[in-house]
Amino acid sequence: MVESLRRPPTEAFARLCDVAMSLDGTMTRLYHATTWHKAPEHFRLWLAEEQDATGLRSWEPVIVPGLLQTEAYAREMISKTPNITAEQIEQRLVARMQRQSILRRDSPPTLNFVMDEAVLHRKAGEPEMMQEQLSHLLEVAQQPTVTLQVVPYETGLHCGLAGGFIIAERNGSPYVAFTEGQPHGRTTADNTEIARLMLRHDSIRAEALPFRHSIRLIQEAVNAHGA
């Protein structure tokens, strides 16, 4: 049915093809490559690199990282893009949810998320939406490959407030990064830039609360949004 184009392939189908033909993820990567055309053009290169990473280091000062967004939160965020159409919102939403498939792999990458406390309190839609989003953070944080930390308000000004970024690693070595910006971010493989971003990530993480304290802060935010 798939070969005759009478049924579109799914990610599960691609994974089974990899297993059946001992392709070490080739079909899964091809499947992902066919879905990224729904994402913004400037972001497609990063999406392809992200799928191959064995580790990711993320810093986000303003919003919930895309890999951790619920569908409702992501839709609300995407809809704020100027002049975006309803069709484009749905296309970008599909790509964002597909991106999160790396969290559900049998062997997911090691994920380190650091975010500012402001992320927990910035209003997004109705209170129920934000409560669902924060509860989702707590759920994902239970995965053994995920570390989530929060930089508290009491830290004051720090270098991370200049903008968000995410660094991809392969077998412990950083090799590509995506930096946020206006009107859009960019992907870089420049070793000097990546080294500077790693230094910033280390500096930001040094200001963050330990994992357990961060989880407690997120739980308090969940309770606050539900009050």
Give an overview in words.
The chain contains 9 helices and 6 strands, in the order H-H-H-E-H-H-E-H-H-E-E-E-E-H-H. The termini are far apart. Helix 1 packs antiparallel against helix 2 and helix 4 crosses helix 5 (86-99). The protein has helices at 11-21, 26-35, 44-52, 71-78, 86-99, 118-121, 127-140, 191-207, 211-226, and strands spanning 55-60, 110-116, 146-151, 165-170, 173-179, 186-188. The protein is globular. Helices cover 45% and strands 15% of the residues. With 227 residues, the protein is α/β, with parallel strands linked by helices. A 6-stranded mixed beta sheet has the order 3-2-1-4-5-6, with helices on both faces.
Please provide a brief summary of the model:
This protein is 45% helix and 15% strand. With 227 residues, it is α/β, with parallel strands linked by helices. Helix 1 runs antiparallel to helix 2 (26-35), helix 4 crosses helix 5 and helix 7 packs antiparallel against helix 9.
Approximate helicity band: 40-55%
Shape: globular
- Strand coverage percent: 15-25%
SSE succession:
HHHEHHEHHEEEEHH
Mean residue pLDDT: 90
Overall radius of gyration: 18 Å
* Strand line-up across the major sheet: 3-2-1-4-5-6
Characterize the main sheet. 6 strands, mixed
End-to-end Cα distance: 51 Å
Task: Output the structural class.
Answer: alpha/beta
Q: How many strand segments?
A: 6
Question: How many helices does DSSP assign?
Answer: 9
Taking pLDDT < 50 over at least 5 consecutive residues as the criterion, the unreliable ranges are none
